[in-house]
Design goal:
homodimer; mainly alpha
Chain lengths: ~240, ~240
């Protein structure tokens, strides 16, 4: 076999891996969207569907991790490819945890549907739907950055994550007010506290995906780096 | 240089990496212990200390990740060593997130000390101290398993994590009861909900560390595997 042949085969292995990561990302994103639909419509069947799909996301993490160890062991990748492969390994961990958060929301929807929910909490659920859309949008942009290995879009995602954190803080204040005004809502409100937390975490994982894009594209490990240093760093 | 010389140098690189991971583990464990001390004693100075150390844990993650990419790129590790290196990469991610959870608890302690806390919540704080000790013990055992690359101890940690999850569920029920009985405790109780959640997550990360030990030692990827399959799988 010629070197060219070997190299083409290797390229197609890397492309295959990249497609699998994007497929897993699409699945994780769909899980989040569906769990939020299940929440805002209190729709138990959609929640059940999210829970059925959870194992698929988990299985993809294990499969992709296995593929990439095989590639590293066989191909002795260059520094740049190795960076990409390590970024893939970390990214799929975040995608798996995004799927976990969606499943968490789905399980809460099941409990809320089961126990019934006061109309007093309707505005809070809509509130959560709003921050959920912010998180989904951040995740979609992070996955776009992954697909195009676009470090600038990665930086933009990291810049916008604090908006979602601020939204979370506002939600907590509103939930506490609702509980104080009507203590009968306390049990259900605690469930919504955890929904809000899950949504905030989806945003955190979108940010972490963006950090991996920057690492793979530029070679800079920007985890725990102030935003200003990321933007002005020459590359 | 003889092969033997090269191999000895490589071995000492791997030993060095392993020591750094254990050092990082010790630091993360100390962070958790201190954050729980700060909570049960409402001791702001200890909370401040945890927050000062947070960056140290973060920096260690970045440094160790850098070291291990260098080793993979230079040494073309065998399948077994590669497995160990990938397990290290994932494990330090969990240690970093354990440090995050400790910092989360420390920030909550600061807020509780700042706003004052009703004596009505004293039992709940002690409750949290109890589950905190369960989580710290699980983490200590997971780190022992890492140090000795002991897959059997890893399985034992995974087996015991559900106890902590059950403790968390019990705490949630008691917190809801406290809030309903005395709505003036709601704001502070929500903070304690997040403390309980942080402690549960420390347990989840201890379990994830144990999974990585099993992967490194046996080559079995047991994430998302039912416990029975782990125990009976031949190795």
């Amino acid at each position: 076999m010629s070197d060219k042949h070997l190299s083409t085969e290797y390229d197609s292995e890397l492309d295959g891996l990249r497609n699998r990561v994007l497929e897993m990302g699409g699945l994780a994103e769909a899980q989040v969207t569906q769990s939020l639909y299940a929440l805002t419509h209190l729709h138990a069947e959609t929640a059940a569907q999210v829970l059925r799909q959870e194992q698929r996301v988990n299985a993809m993490e294990v499969e992709i991790d296995h593929e990439l160890s095989t590639i590293i062991a066989r191909r002795q990748p260059t520094a740049r490819d190795l960076r990409l492969l390590i970024a893939v390994s970390k990214s799929i961990g975040h995608l798996e945890r995004i799927g976990d958060e969606a499943a968490r929301i789905a399980r809460i929807v099941n409990r809320l549907v089961g126990s019934g929910i006061s109309s007093r909490l309707r505005p809070t659920i809509l509130d959560t739907g709003h921050s959920g859309r912010m998180a989904t949008e951040l995740l979609r942009r992070a996955l776009d950055a992954v697909a195009r290995l676009d470090a600038d879009e990665g930086v933009a995602v990291i810049r916008d994550d604090p908006e979602l954190d601020a939204e979370f803080d506002g939600q907590m204040r509103r939930l506490v007010t609702t509980m104080i005004e009507d203590p009968r809502t306390i049990s259900a409100s605690i469930e919504l506290v955890f929904v809000a937390k899950a949504i905030e975490r989806v945003g955190d994982h979108a940010k972490a995906l963006a950090e991996q894009v920057i690492y793979a594209a530029r070679g800079d490990d920007v985890r725990h780096t102030p935003l200003d240093d990321m933007v002005t760093r020459p590359h």
